[in-house]
Design a protein that fits this description.
GO terms for molecular function: purine nucleobase transmembrane transporter activity. The chain crosses the membrane at residues 31-50, 62-80, 87-106, 112-130, 142-166, 178-198, 205-228, 248-273, 294-316, 328-349, 356-375, 387-411, 423-441. It holds the Pfam family Xan_ur_permease. It is found in: Cell membrane. This protein has helices spanning 2-17, 26-40, 43-52, 58-80, 92-103, 108-127, 130-137, 140-161, 182-197, 203-217, 240-243, 251-279, 290-307, 318-323, 329-342, 346-349, 354-369, 380-396, 399-416, 425-442; strands spanning 86-88, 165-168, 172-175, 312-314. It is mainly alpha-helical and 445 residues long. The protein has one domain. The longest helix is centred in the middle third of the chain and has 29 residues, at 251-279. The radius of gyration is 21 Å and the shape is globular. The mean pLDDT is 87.
Length: 445
């Protein structure tokens, strides 16, 4: 009887998510969800560390991060049916802590209120389909550049996290010294490449497991002393965003809200486009169900603020799950469930260091960079803005900043090439929006 019920459940999951139609299996979707989770589980520890510097309770932020990520992932999977995970975004959490709270002297409670208001505006823009219109208006060549640029960006994150690329005062970055924990990343990268070339299913995840075991065996990664722990209380941060909305009462704080809105808006838009390109979801230069995807991440942003964390958005690490075959929303649901379970197994997650995830990010970067071949490089008016997006994302360490450089340049080069009439009116609007966006980000504090 249990087997029969299990088969019924399996058939319902297949039917709802269209797993077989997408050429996948439930087992593969679960592996993809697990791979995505492993690739981004670091946020459970990094986010509390960053927001903790702003005076927030680290335990509460840890729990808020896990729950907000789970909510967004499950929404994305069930509602939008995409294998795209969400979590508090790196970069904007640093802006929250170091620029807003520490730099401007704004309390973390007020900053959370700013995130909450930005999320509400986000929801309204999504409901009125303005975000969907913007994504559809971006030319196909720039979408390929966005996807490839994200690939370069996450590969750079992997190289840096693995210690293969290190900071250098004279040249900004240089090759690492291949000592200590860097070998964890190197072994993982070699293992990933070999396993993928041998067409081994789940090659990325297996390679991450190999590198983690190597790290523990050599003492470079501390083995966990226990596996289960209690979940920290949310009480210090829960609903602080709502109760402090009235604190948003100055021009400076309105600018903070707009900054949260703009950075999250374009980070998410760029990430969704890039991941949709990687997974082959784009049809006629449009992303199916983009409205549902946008509503999922904007809802997660509002929920995350109420729980007590910085803006939540689509995560580029979802590309790791897509690379191992994740094609349906069941991948994202699996990731969401694992975020909830991760709250109880935090000691075990500490084994997943940046060196362990480095190989997955680098290889996925290679796969996403293949979209560069689809750009019309022979047309300079297309090549210039595309290149700025490609190079801008990794060098500014920001998807939204790289996107801004390319979209600002696109109308200029098209007009210079006497092709201005081919530019969508919305792209001209975006030109001025991004000019303002960069001005706000760089305005004197």
């Amino acid at each position: 009887m249990f087997g029969k019920r299990g088969l019924i459940v399996k058939n319902k999951i297949n039917a709802y998510f269209g797993i077989e139609e997408l050429g996948s299996t439930i087992k593969r979707e679960m592996l993809a969800g697990f791979t995505t989770f492993i690739s981004m589980a670091y946020i459970l520890f990094v986010n509390p560390a960053i927001l903790g510097d702003a005076g927030m309770d680290k335990g509460a932020v840890f729990t808020a991060t896990g729950l907000a990520s789970a909510f967004g992932c499950i929404m994305m999977g069930v509602f939008a049916k995409y294998p795209i995970a969400t979590a508090p975004a790196l970069g904007i959490n640093a802006f929250f802590a170091y620029s807003v709270c520490i730099g401007m002297g704004v309390s973390w409670q007020t900053a959370l209120a700013g995130v909450f208001l930005a999320g509400i505006i986000f929801l309204l823009l999504t409901i009125f389909k303005l975000r969907e219109m913007i994504i559809d208006a971006i030319p196909v060549d720039l979408k390929y550049a966005i996807s490839a640029g994200i690939g370069l960006f996450i590969a750079f994150i992997g190289l840096r996290g693995g210690g293969i690329i290190v900071p250098n005062k004279e040249t900004f970055v240089s090759l690492g010294h291949f000592q200590g924990t860097t070998w964890i990343a190197v072994i993982g990268l070699v293992a990933t490449g070999v396993l993928m070339l041998l067409n081994v299913p789940g090659a990325i995840f297996i390679a991450m497991l190999i590198s983690a075991v190597f790290g523990v065996a050599t003492g470079m990664i501390d083995a966990p002393t226990h596996f289960v722990s209690s979940v920290p209380s949310l009480k210090p941060t829960l609903f602080q965003a709502f109760t402090h909305v009235t604190d948003i009462n100055s021009v400076q704080l309105v600018v903070v809200v707009l900054t949260f809105l703009l950075v999250t808006f374009f980070d998410t838009a760029g990430t969704l486009i890039g991941l949709a390109q990687q997974a082959g979801f784009m049809k006629d230069n449009k992303m199916p169900r983009v409205g549902q995807a946008l509503l999922s991440d904007s809802s997660a942003m509002v929920v995350g603020a109420l729980l007590g964390t910085s803006p939540v958005g689509a995560y580029v690490e979802s590309s790791a799950g897509i690379a191992v075959g994740g094609r349906s929303g069941f991948t994202a649901v699996t990731t969401g469930v694992l975020f909830i379970l991760g709250l109880f197994f935090s000691p075990l997650l500490s084994v997943v260091t940046p060196q362990v995830t480095a190989s997955a990010l680098i290889i996925v970067g290679v796969l996403m960079a293949q979209n560069m071949a689809k750009i019309e490089w022979g047309k300079l008016e297309i090549a210039i803005p595309s290149f700025l997006i490609l190079i801008g994302m990794p060098l500014t360490y920001s998807i939204s900043d790289g996107l801004a450089l390319g979209i600002i340049m696109y109308p200029i080069t098209m007009i210079a090439a006497k092709r201005g009439k081919e530019v969508s009116p919305l792209m001209y609007v975006l030109f001025f929006v991004f000019v303002g966006f960069l001005w706000i980000l760089n305005a004197p504090k």
